[in-house]
Amino acid sequence: xxxxxxxxxxxxxxxxxxxxxxxxxxxxxxxxxxxxxxxxxxxxxxxxxxxxxxxxxxxxxxxxxxxxxxxxxxxxxxxxxxxxxxxxxxxxxxxxxxxxxxxxxxxxxxxxxxxxxxxxxxxxxxxxxxxxxxxxxxxxxxxxxxxxxxxxxxxxxxxxxxxxxxxxxxxxxxxxxxxxxxxxxxxxxxxxxxxxxxxxxxxxxxxxxxxxxxxxxxxxxxxxxxxxxxxxxxxxxxxxxxxxxxxxxxxxxxxxxxxxxxxxxxxxxxxxxxxxxxxxxxxxxxxxxxxxxxxxxxxxxxxxxxxxxxxxxxxxxxxxxxxxxxxxxxxxxxxxxxxxxxxxxxxxxxxxxxxxxxxxxxxxxxxxxxxxxxxxxxxxxxxxxxxxxxxxxxxx
Length: 396
Prior knowledge:
By secondary structure, the chain is of the alpha/beta class. The chain has helices at about 35-50, 75-85, 95-105, 120-125, 130-135, 155-160, 170-185, 200-210, 220-230, 245-255, 295-310, 330-345, 355-365, 375-385, 390; strands spanning about 15-20, 25-30, 30, 55-60, 90, 110-115, 140-145, 165, 190-195, 215, 260, 265-270, 280, 290-295, 310-315, 350, 370-375.
């Protein structure tokens, strides 16, 4: 990865620092229910404030069509203040007189959150006039929102083109972890890709088979591959119309000398519900009236062996229907094994995507992985080999 500018190169003392953060947090009855994204940006906010910069936070919230009180960031400002342990001022617009007055009132070390950037159509259009209005409010720009870096919006990409720009500490950590994951990894590299649908991850699979030494395919996706190879999958979730795509990916892997690891057994049940009666069958003996809901113990052993062989692991997507016990066992076992290898210093483990983060938290091992990305779409696009506009704009 080309070098990118970080806070180490920024002189923030006495400066107005526009900091793009991800505060698109879950809310219920006006209260933040999960503060993970707030906690991730606190180091950058604190560092700039402690060095005497005026911190001006830019963020989006939801998908409003114009100004909408239900999508206001005001309650989020209160949550940021609580976690930061100091006041966070709020301006009820991100441009114009209200924003300018709030910025002009800041002292060195103060923190201000501006209203939802998406209240203005110019944000998602990356409109030059809107970028210019935002830029009036700052002397420097810091992007600490990797999760929004795949969008070429005004506050994620446009500002970085008109102000001196730097990666915040969370962005920096994410980029360094991703470089270790695929761009300059220790080999062998193993990827685990799971989830329900092949259709949402075709680009991802086609990119990974060229870059990794072994690719583990699990979840509902694996059923599509098993079907493509001519085996019965009963009533299992699958995209049978993508059989040719699955075979093409297998052929691409063969040409790239990438081993494809598919389940050899599956935990099956008549219905998808918690505690459903289940039985494990070989992958060539799945009953016609049952569905595969998890990988079996022999498959877990194969995944664990692949992890043992790996120096680097990249993980996106669960191996089974982990949300409902007992169909979480395969994912939990593999996650705990990867975490143990990481703790022993034998594995660099990078994971990301919403379901993946939930699965690792469910297994109690998210803290034990080298890096867990909460970025979702940006993480997926990076895995697909796509350039991210918000990152490209920060390159030195």
